[in-house]
Automatic annotation (TrEMBL):
Coiled-coil features, chain-numbered ranges: none
Protein name: Alanine dehydrogenase
InterPro entries reported for this sequence: Ala_DH, Ala_DH/PNT_CS2, AlaDH/PNT_CS1, AlaDH/PNT_N, AlaDH/PNT_NAD(H)-bd, NAD(P)-bd_dom_sf
Keywords carried by this UniProt record: NAD, Oxidoreductase
Entry-linked SMART domains: AlaDh_PNT_C (SM01002), AlaDh_PNT_N (SM01003)
Name of the coding gene: ald
Residue ranges of every copy of the Alanine dehydrogenase/pyridine nucleotide transhydrogenase N-terminal domain listed in the record: 4-137
EC code(s) of this entry: 1.4.1.1
Top enzyme class: oxidoreductase
GO MF annotations in UniProt: alanine dehydrogenase activity
Similarity comment text for this entry: Belongs to the AlaDH/PNT family.
Stored SUPFAM superfamilies: Formate/glycerate dehydrogenase catalytic domain-like, NAD(P)-binding Rossmann-fold domains
Organism: Robiginitalea marina
Catalytic activity: L-alanine + NAD(+) + H2O = pyruvate + NH4(+) + NADH + H(+)
Entries under Gene3D superfamilies matching the protein: NAD(P)-binding Rossmann-like Domain
Length: 367
């Protein structure tokens, strides 16, 4: 198979779809890999490293799309890429379709085969291709939240760990999934007081068992959320509905009850956000203020640490890429129920239930 690795062109996205180590596995199996010149530089992988493992370096993103049967990348195609996607071409990436009807319609119109990393699902309900980026984003949420609590960037001026004689900052984590667990772990490590909310009692029991005593659990309800947003310094939104839009757990009116300089990091922004006032931001302009509440809503948080993120991503995507390349997408999905759940759009038709619930049965434009 001919596989293309284009350079990511989303704002400040420095990750790349595959490391040279991953490319080597493909070329060893007789596949052709096209890598756009400079695609790996942001992650620390120059063209020469790809050449050494048998990749062919192409000058432009258009060449990569036009010469490849399958595109392996990190982020969803953006407007400039829509016209490059070809009929029947396999696009394997993070799509997060539920957050963008425009992207969904564009991929329907392209009649490509869209396999979304974030909906590949194992038998136990885990999301193996989303997990490593959720781990990165959860840890980064505290790193970024701590920075934006500083007064020069409009935060409350709170040091999360406190100092002797001064109590630590308070962190509220919505969701006890991968993002929430990692955020709580990082916040606890800094010495902050952490409250983590979820509706899943099994997850809360797990958190209670593995976290230190200054991480407390509570059942998630509107009443409890309203209570806690008034007293916490940093709020991390880590709620996920597989393939669907995130629920709006923090509403517009709640902001007025928060203290000025409170920071919200909405990691769920890729799925529309779990805060009503969330809108996607970039690493270039990561925050905005509403009612003196700092919103950090960067839609590609792991892109700020591309070396770590690219390595972690290739570790989990490579087995699926090899299967798709060796067998073709139809056989690979037929033989692997986990991969089959990654199918969101196939040749002009939405095939993923949660996406149908989000937008209804959108139709392809007339050819």
């Amino acid at each position: 198979m001919e596989i293309g690795i284009p350079k990511e062109i989303k704002n400040n996205e420095s990750r790349v779809g595959m490391t040279p180590a991953g490319v080597l596995e493909l070329t060893h199996r007789g596949h052709t890999v096209f890598v756009q010149s400079g695609a790996g530089l942001g992650s620390g992988f120059p063209d020469e490293e790809y050449k050494k493992v048998g990749a062919r370096i192409l000058d432009t993103i258009g060449q990569v799309y036009s010469m490849s049967e399958m595109i392996v990348k990190v982020k969803e195609p953006i407007k400039e890429e829509y016209g490059m996607v070809q009929k029947g071409q396999v696009i394997f990436t993070y799509f997060h379709f539920a957050s963008s009807e425009r992207l969904t319609q564009a991929m329907i119109d392209s009649r490509a085969v869209c396999l979304a990393y974030e909906t590949v699902e194992d038998e136990d309900g885990s999301l193996p291709l989303l997990t490593p980026m959720s781990e990165v984003a959860g840890r980064m949420a505290i790193q970024q939240g701590a920075k934006y609590l500083e007064k020069p960037v409009k935060g409350r001026g709170v040091l999360l760990g406190g100092v002797p004689g001064v109590p630590p900052g308070r962190v509220l984590v919505l969701g006890a999934g991968t993002v929430g667990i990692q955020a709580a772990k990082m916040a606890a490590g800094l010495g902050a007081h952490v409250t983590i909310l979820d509706v899943n009692m099994k997850r809360l029991r797990y958190v209670n068992d593995v976290m230190p005593s200054h991480v407390v659990t509570e059942f998630s309800s509107e009443y409890n959320i309203r209570k806690h947003v008034r007293s916490h310094d940093l709020i991390v939104g880590g709620v996920l509905l597989k393939g669907g839009k995130a629920p709006k757990l923090i509403t517009r009116d709640m902001l007025k009850t928060m203290r000025p300089g409170t920071v919200i990091v909405d990691v769920a922004v890729d799925q529309g956000g779990c805060v009503e006032t969330t809108r996607p931001t970039t690493h270039e302009n990561p925050t905005y203020l509403i009612d003196d509440v700092v919103h950090y809503c960067v839609a590609n948080m792991p892109g700020a640490v591309p070396y770590t993120s690219t390595m972690a991503l290739t570790n989990v995507t490579l087995p699926y890429v090899l299967s798709l390349a060796d067998k073709g997408w139809e056989r690979a999905c037929r033989e692997d129920a986990s991969l089959q759940k990654g199918l969101n759009i196939v040749k002009g038709e939405i095939v993923y239930e949660e996406l149908l619930e989000a937008f209804g049965p959108l139709k392809a434009a007339t050819a």
